[in-house]
Design a protein that fits this description.
Layout: H1 12-22, E1 27-31, E2 37-41, H2 42-58, E3 66-70, H3 75-86, E4 90-93, H4 100-110, E5 112-117, H5 122-128, E6 137-140, E7 157-158, H6 159-164, E8 180-185, E9 195-199, H7 200-211, E10 223-226, H8 233-236, H9 238-245, E11 248-251, H10 258-267, E12 272-275, H11 277-290, E13 299-302, H12 309-319, E14 322-328, E15 335-338, H13 350-357, E16 362-363, E17 368-372, E18 387-392, E19 414-422, E20 428-433, E21 438-440, E22 443-445, H14 447-455, E23 460-470, E24 474-483, H15 491-497, E25 510-513, H16 527-533
Parallel strand pairs: 1-11, 3-4, 3-5, 4-8, 5-6, 6-7, 10-11, 10-12, 12-13, 13-14, 24-25
Antiparallel strand pairs: 1-2, 8-9, 14-15, 15-16, 17-18, 18-19, 19-20, 21-22, 23-24
Length: 542
C-alpha cells in the first residue's frame, strides 16, 4: 500500500518559485566585477532566471545540454543557477583558477554548448575559445556598454543584451527529480579532473539539510556571505539554501582580500559566512592589524581543508564568532559533517569544548559513514581506531560523468581517501589524506596535527607537513613553514614549540622555511608540487 500524499518532484525551479512567492522582497547584494554594489530581490532574480531559460530556448539548446560558467559569486551567476537547471539543462560551473589548458579540457569533456563568463576571465577564453568546438554561444556577464570592442571572439554577446529581449514568463518543465541539474569537476590533483553530476533531487535534499539547526542553521533573519566560490561545489549549496529560506544573500564578487571581505560584512550586516581557511586567514590578519571588530557576524562555516584550532580560538575568543568546522567533498555535494556541540557538552570547560569543535563534527542526516582497515573490515567507532573513511547517501556520487575512472564504489560505499577516527557519539576526526599519512617505524603520524600545532605559533602564517624518506624509520615528518610578515622564528624555537603537544617521536625532524606554499584551485595546499620543490632535500644527519 502506498501513501496518499501528492507526488511532486523535488526540483531546483521550485526553490526560486518559493523564494519569489514568499520571500520576494528578500535582498540579494553583489559586489560586481565593475567594482560597484548591485542590489535587487529574489523576485527580481526569479524574473531574470526565466529570461535566461527563454534565451536558451531561443538558441534551441536541448534538455540535458551543458551550459558552462566561468564566474565569481554574483547575481548574474545566481540567475544562471536557476535559469539553466530549472529549464532542464545542466549548469556546469568551471573553476577559473585551473590552468587554461585544463579549463579547455573540461569545457570539451563536458561538451558545453553555451559558456557564460565574467570579464575578469576574458584573457583565458580569448586564448582557448578556438579549441572549444562544442561552444555555440559565448556570453560575457556584463552589459553591452562594458563589452570590449575587439575581443577576437566572433559572436560574443553581453549577458544583458542576451536576455533583454526575452519574455519574463516561463513555465518550468515538470522534470523527473532524478534529472541531472549541475556538473562540477574535481580539482584534479592527479590526472584529469572528473565530473560529478548532481540531480535536482540531490540538490534540493542537500539544501534542506544545510539549513538544519545543527548544520548552517539559516533562516530569513540571516544575512549570508558565501565567500566559498559558486564554482566550488556550488558554493556549498548556499545559493539553493538561500532561496529555500529567504535569507539575505551577499555575494563578494572577485574581491576576496581581508579588507574587502570585512567591509562588505560590516556594510551588509552579515550574520553568517562560509569559506576556506586561507580566506579567513586574510580576514583575521586585516582585523588584527587594524584593531577591528565585528558588529553582526555570529558564526562561520569553515571547510575545504582542516581548520587550525588557533583559528577557531581566535574567532571565538577575540571576536565572539562561533566556527562551525565542516567536512565534505565535491563527490558529496559537498556536505558530510559539521561540528556543533550537543547539550551535554555545554557543561564542559572551554578547553574540552575546543577539543570537540576541532573535529570535523557529526554526520548530517542523509550521510552515513564508516571506517575500514586495509582489508576492508569495519573498525569500531571508539575515537581510537583509524581507518579509511567510506560514505553513502542520497547526495553522494554513484559514478563519475561519462563513466570516468570506472566504478568508484565499494559495496555501495564511496571511499573518500581520508584517514579518520569516529567516536561513539559520531564525531569524525580526519587525521590525514590517505596519500599524505606519514608511516614512521610502523606507526602513523598525522600531518594535520603537525600542521595545526605549527599554525598555533604566532609567527607562522601557513604550514605543511611532509613525510620524508628515512633509511631506518621509513618516513620522518618535516614541517614546511611560511612566516607572517615582520615576524621571526627559528628552527629551534619552532621545534621546541611542539614539546608537550605531541609524543616525542611525532615531533618533526626539521623545519623548512619557504616564501610560499603552492595552493591548488580551491585553496588547498598542493603537497605534490611542494615535494617537487624539495626534491633535493635531505633529512638532517643523513
Amino acid at each position: 500500500m502506498l501513501g496518499q500524499m501528492q507526488d511532486r518532484p523535488l526540483l531546483i525551479s521550485s526553490l526560486i518559485d518559493f523564494a519569489e512567492r514568499f520571500h520576494g522582497d528578500g535582498e540579494i547584494v553583489s559586489r560586481r566585477v565593475e567594482g560597484d554594489i548591485h542590489r535587487y530581490t529574489y523576485a527580481d532574480a526569479a524574473v531574470r532566471s526565466r529570461q535566461v531559460a527563454n534565451a536558451l530556448d531561443h538558441l534551441r539548446i536541448a534538455h540535458g545540454s551543458r551550459i558552462g560558467t566561468l564566474a565569481w559569486n554574483g547575481y548574474r551567476h545566481f540567475e544562471l543557477y536557476y535559469g539553466v537547471s530549472g529549464s532542464g539543462r545542466i549548469l556546469h560551473t568551471i573553476n577559473p583558477r585551473l590552468h587554461p589548458e585544463q579549463v579547455a579540457w573540461i569545457i570539451n569533456h563536458a561538451e558545453d554548448e553555451v559558456l557564460c563568463f565574467d570579464l575578469t576571465f576574458l584573457p583565458i577564453l580569448k586564448a582557448i575559445h578556438a579549441h572549444c568546438p562544442h561552444v555555440r554561444q559565448w556570453v560575457a556577464l556584463c552589459d553591452a556598454d562594458s563589452l570590449p570592442g575587439d575581443t577576437g571572439m566572433p559572436g560574443l554577446i553581453a549577458y544583458e543584451q542576451w536576455i533583454a529581449g526575452q519574455g519574463t514568463d516561463y513555465e518550468w518543465p515538470m522534470l523527473d527529480e532524478n534529472t541531472a541539474a549541475c556538473l562540477c569537476y574535481t580539482s584534479g590533483t592527479t590526472g584529469n579532473p572528473k565530473g560529478v553530476l548532481y540531480s535536482h533531487r540531490s540538490s534540493v535534499l542537500h539544501a534542506y539539510a544545510a539549513a538544519m539547526p545543527d548544520v548552517m542553521c539559516l533562516s530569513a533573519r540571516d544575512s549570508v556571505l558565501p565567500v566559498v566560490p559558486m564554482f566550488h561545489v556550488n558554493a556549498w549549496g548556499i545559493p539553493y539554501t538561500g532561496a529555500a529560506t529567504g535569507c539575505k544573500l551577499v555575494f563578494p564578487g572577485p574581491a576576496l582580500d581581508g579588507k574587502s571581505v570585512y567591509e562588505l560584512m560590516e556594510a551588509e550586516q552579515v550574520t553568517f559566512a562560509a569559506g576556506v581557511p586561507t580566506v579567513w586567514q586574510m580576514l583575521l590578519g586585516h582585523m588584527q592589524q587594524n584593531g577591528l571588530r565585528f558588529r553582526t557576524l555570529q558564526r562561520t562555516v569553515i571547510g575545504g581543508s582542516a581548520c587550525p584550532p588557533a583559528m577557531i580560538s581566535a574567532f571565538k575568543e577575540q571576536y565572539g564568532v562561533t566556527v562551525l568546522h565542516a567536512w565534505g567533498m565535491t563527490e558529496m555535494s559537498p556536505l558530510g559533517t559539521l561540528c556543533t556541540l550537543k547539550n551535554k557538552h555545554l557543561k564542559l570547560s572551554a578547553e574540552e569544548q575546543l577539543k570537540i569543535l576541532c573535529t570535523q563534527g557529526r554526520p548530517v542526516f542523509g550521510v552515513d559513514m564508516k571506517i575500514v582497515d586495509d582489508a576492508g573490515h569495519e573498525l569500531p567507532h571508539d575515537g581510537v581506531a583509524q581507518g579509511e573513511l567510506l560514505v553513502k547517501g542520497p547526495w553522494i556520487i554513484r559514478a563519475y560523468f561519462k563513466g570516468e575512472g570506472g566504478d568508484p564504489l565499494i559495496d555501495g560505499w564511496f571511499p573518500t581517501g581520508d584517514v579518520a577516527t569516529i567516536n561513539a557519539e559520531g564525531y569524525l576526526h580526519i587525521t590525514d589524506r590517505s596519500k599524505d599519512v606519514i608511516k614512521s617505524g610502523g606507526e602513523w603520524i598525522s600531518s594535520i596535527d603537525v600542521e595545526n600545532i605549527a599554525m598555533a605559533h604566532p609567527a607562522v602564517a601557513m604550514a605543511a607537513c611532509l613525510g620524508m624518506r628515512h633509511p631506518k624509520w621509513d618516513e620522518r615528518p618535516v614541517v614546511v613553514v611560511v612566516k607572517k610578515p615582520d615576524t621571526e622564528v627559528t628552527r629551534e624555537e619552532l621545534l621546541a614549540f611542539y614539546q608537550g603537544k605531541l609524543s616525542k617521536w611525532q615531533i618533526p625532524d626539521d623545519v623548512i622555511f619557504v616564501a610560499a606554499i603552492p595552493l591548488g584551485a580551491t585553496g588547498k595546499m598542493q603537497k605534490i608540487k611542494l615535494r617537487e620543490q624539495l626534491a633535493d632535500y635531505v633529512l638532517p644527519g643523513l
